[in-house]
Design goal:
71 residues, mainly alpha, elongated, single chain
Length: 71
Amino acid sequence: MTLQNLLGVSLAAIAPERSQVARMLAAAERNLADYSGDLVPDSSVNECITSATALQTHVRAWLQSNKPDLV
């Protein structure tokens, strides 16, 4: 969905003002600064995936034993 599609549905068209544009640009710069930290190493990502898979397996086994109607 594009911004143009939203006009009249959930957004109203507003003529831009210099102060609004400056405020939005400042917010965008702050957001970029928030995400400029170190990247997560692949080994950490793989460890998280392994842990999530093990948790999923454990939950499915528990559900099968204790709440089979939900599986």
